Amino acid sequence: MKIATFNINGINTRLQALLAWLEKEQPDIACLQELKAPGDAFPAQAIADAGYGAIWHGQKSWNGVAVLARDAEPVEIGRGLPGDPEDTQSRYIEAAVGGIVVVCLYLPNGNPQPGPKFDYKLAWFDRFLKRAQQLYDCGQPVVLAGDYNVVPTDEDIYDPKSWRKDALLQPESRERYNRLIGQGWTDSLRHVFGEKRVYTFWDYFRQHWERDAGLRIDHLLLNAELAPRLRAAGVDRWVRGQTKPSDHAPTWIEITDGVERPAASRTARRPRTKT
Q1: What pLDDT is attached to residue 268?
Q2: What's the pLDDT tens digit per position in 75-127?
Q3: Architecture of domain 2-255
Q4: How confident is the model at residue 68 (pLDDT cuts 50, 70, 90)?
Q5: Burial class (CB in 10 A: 0-12, 13-18, 19+), 51
Q6: Reduced to 3 DSSP states, what percent helix, strand and coil does the chain have, rounded to the nearest 5?
Q7: Distance, first Cα to last Cα, the chain
Q8: Which burial class, exposed, middle or buried, applies to 163 when counting CB atoms under 10 A from its CB (0-12, 13-18, 19+)?
Q9: 180 three-class SS
Q10: Alpha-helix runs per DSSP H in the chain
Q11: Which pLDDT tens digit goes with each residue over 11-63?
Q12: What angle do CA 82, 218, 105 make, to 5 degrees?
């Protein structure tokens, strides 16, 4: 099974690019971010014609997340990150697909910092840490896939010098990401690539793509039930090289099919939601 995450940066603007990627790479599950479209503008028919069922959480002009499943219909578990009923930004959705709990997230960018946008990023991350712990402990295989807007270490960026003041590299952002990993989650790409540099995002400016001056900010994290099934990971860089592309490239993992588990307390159940 191939699970991918892709910040599409405008689903209707880049619909043909999305469909071309789905046709060529055929991910079984695709998590999309930055739809930049309200719910009724989501191109559901075009995606269905490509062979994918979908659920989505849209928002006019900004944000927006979706989960696509090839030859299947994702079952929605929840939408909106728990913990703040006043937060109406469309950044989070949970689904069940093929026996896996799939979380698609678009963590706030946080720029400029310091300021209210960075404060929102950290508060959102704190809420996410609480939900992530619940999901990690739920007893089902779980993947947290999305654009985290965090460069975990200096080895995940071409050159950190000019980015030191950016919200993606701030100590507070990295500390929260490290706390997330500390819950037990496996960072799939880092696990597969080891010390080798791998990027998922190239800024539009200053020829970052042409110079391969990239950042790794798109992550797929696996809990203890799913991590042993990880077999491969990669980035579909060719997508970033197309005409008028997103500034991200699809990032993916391959996992083996699930096997029957011992009976003891591993019966399927939905993860509980707590606020």
Answers
A1: 31
A2: 999 999 999 999 999 999 999 999 999 999 999 999 999 999 999 999 999 99
A3: 4-Layer Sandwich (3.60)
A4: very high
A5: middle
A6: 25, 25, 50
A7: 32
A8: middle
A9: helix
A10: 15-25, 44-49, 116-136, 171-182, 188-193, 237-240
A11: 999 999 999 999 999 999 999 999 999 999 999 999 999 999 999 999 999 99
A12: 20
Residue 199 in contact with residue 211, Cβ under 8 Å? no
Name the β-bridge partners of 25: none
Query: Which pLDDT score is estimated for 155?
Result: 97
Residue with tokens 């728990």: 82
Mean pLDDT for the chain?
94
Q: Which residues contact 155 (CB under 8 A, 6 or more apart)?
A: 195, 197
Is 147 among the catalytic positions? yes
Helix, strand or coil for residue 102? strand
28, 52, 92, 106: the catalytic one is 106
Angle at 9 between CA 168 and CA 121, to 5 degrees: 30
User: Each residue of 204-221: pLDDT tens digit?
Assistant: 999 999 999 999 999 999
Rounded Cα distance, 239 and 250, in Å: 7
Catalytic residue among 52, 92, 147, 199: 147
Residue type, 237: R
Alpha-carbon gap, residue 151 to 160, rounded angstroms: 10
To the query of whether residue 106 is one of the catalytic residues in this protein, the response is: yes
- Picking from 156, 212, 214, the residue whose alpha carbon sits closest to that of residue 181 is 156
Where b means 16+ CB within 10 Å and e means fewer, 106-129 reads bbbbbeebeeeebebbbebbebbe
